[in-house]
Amino acid sequence: MPLVLVRIDDRLIHGQVVVGWGIQLSPNRIILSSDEIASSSWEKEMYMGAEATAPFPLSISVLTIDETILFLTENQTEKTILLVEAPKEILTLIEKGLKIEKVNVGGMHYKPGKRRLAPYIFVDEEDITAFKKMSDMNIELEGQDVPTAKKIDILKALKAISEDQL
Fold first, then answer.
1. Among residues 110, 118, 112, 113, which one has the least CA distance to residue 142?
2. Which of 112, 94, 110 is CA-nearest to residue 102?
3. Residue 116: which of 160, 79, 74, 166 has the closest Cα?
4. How many domains are there within the chain?
């Protein structure tokens, strides 16, 4: 299945994804990959409700990590946006066999213990470690909240926050 966007965004399915990225990329489907949300019927239903409000025909699937791998390997025809909440989920998908070349980092909002990487990206040590592992796998990492915004090189931004701590 052609992945037109692999995105980390802690808000998951919301206007920037459905309208901003959706209109730009014209996906047939959005997959929200989360073991936790896929096991919660009310959360799953809430996110899948975006199908009805999307400004274009769109299918939404809320799947576990394992279901995501299976779905993406068995379905080769739909243009798909893959959403996860955190970098560690991308690593899990890769470790389980999903081929990913590029990751878009959208909103990773402030929480205690996180440091600012960009106005809309805050990271902790677990996030930094995951990004470094992805980089070691030659996965391109770019920050960009909406398609019209300037792209941020995540590795350069990580280096800058590391140098600030010296």
1. 118
2. 94
3. 160
4. 1
Residue 97's domain spans which residues?
Answer: 3-164
Give the rounded distance of the alpha carbon of 26 from its chain centre.
17
Spatial separation of the C-alpha atoms in residues 54 and 36, rounded to whole Å: 24
The pTM (predicted TM-score) of the whole model is 0.92
What pLDDT, on a 0 to 100 scale, did the predictor assign at position 67?
96
Q: Side-chain half-sphere of 18: how many Cα atoms within 13 Å?
A: 20
**Side by side, which strands form the sheet with 59-63?**
59-63, 29-33, 80-84, 3-8, 102-105, 140-143, 152-153
CATH number at residue 92: 3.40.35.10
Of 38, 40, 80, nearest to 58 by C-alpha is 80
pLDDT of residue 164: 58
Give the pLDDT confidence of 48-84 residue by residue, as tens digits: 888 888 888 889 999 999 999 999 988 768 899 999 9
